[in-house]
Design goal:
By secondary structure, this protein is mainly alpha-helical. It has a domain of 46 residues. It is 51% helix and 0% strand. The chain contains one helix and no strands. The longest helix has 35 residues. It is elongated, with a radius of gyration of 19 Å.
């Protein structure tokens, strides 16, 4: 059985990304754009998660006047 890539070699690549698989040595403009776009989307998702944690967990807990 060969390695299919993806999560633990299962061939499933998860919900993030485009579903287009470019080899690491492929330097075409399309693959570079897809890699950049995927990195940009992951950055936006990370920023959203940090924003969510700050607004709904940290800010109400540390900056509320009820707890003091």
């Amino acid at each position: 059985m060969g390695n299919n890539g993806g999560i633990a070699g299962s061939g499933i690549y998860g919900m993030f990304g485009t579903g287009i698989v470019c080899k690491s040595e492929d330097n075409s403009y399309y693959c570079n754009f897809v890699k950049f776009f995927n990195a940009f989307m992951m950055l936006l998702i990370f920023i959203f998660i940090v924003y969510f944690i700050y607004n709904f967990i940290i800010k109400p807990y540390f900056f509320s006047k009820r707890g003091r």
